[in-house]
Design a protein that fits this description.
four-stranded antiparallel sheet, 15 strands, five-stranded mixed sheet, 9 helices, elongated
Length: about 290
Amino acid sequence: LRPAAISELKRGHPWVWRGSIAPPSLARFETFSPGADVVLTAPDGSVVGAGIADPISPIAARVWTSDGSAVDEALIRERVARAIALRRGLSATNTNAYRLVHGEGDRAPGIVVDRYGDVAVLRLDGDGARARREQIARAITPLLREIGITPLLQRDRQEEPAAIFGELPREAVVVREHGVPFVADVVRGQKTGAFLDQRENRKRVGAMARGKSVLNLFSYAGGFSLHAALGVATRVTSVDSASGAHATAQASFKAASVDPRAHDFVTADAFAFLADAQKKGKSWDIVVS
């Protein structure tokens, strides 16, 4: 590696960019297969890390260890077990939909696992992680079964959803977020089924909504809209170009005992909607996008 890249690794950065590999080593690195173990060294030959190779990606390697030890099934299991343990307290908030494994944030680069009740969805980032699919599945399957996961699905932009164990859900699943039920399409929905990273923001919008009109742009499955409605907003307008997203949002409203007919669901391009609203002098107290 080039010296600048070594400094980044020592500060904890989990990626090695392709341009960080010194030219004499780059040609050899390009012969590696995706998912191969790669040992990272300084110009003097000292080991500064190890990880998983992704030879054709701008992110050439995802770093797992600082001592050069290989990424094996035991290491993957250890990192994922630690990540699961960190999130055990979320159930106390009456929440059963959340990210179990945050990839690089949990020192498990390329591995994302989201939980939706008793369903989990695995996404692998990069060809290197995808090449390790079977190893990763073996490592995490016992851990997920232990916490009550019955099916584990694998979602990939390049492939159809598949079940690693259990069966693909035939219908969308109903889960809870701070006690609020919502519907998630874990098989066909965006990301792994919902944007789980917005949990606290949705709660905050709900707390601010009483007596106010709320506009939710790019509303997708309507999480912000539902929290606003439950927060006693006077009227909530959800705008998304996908009518199917509105169907999911309306199902969530019904699951939470909120009449979707009391609010507006507009199928339109958000920018065109805003331009038209501006011409007509329309405004809202709270706008989420």
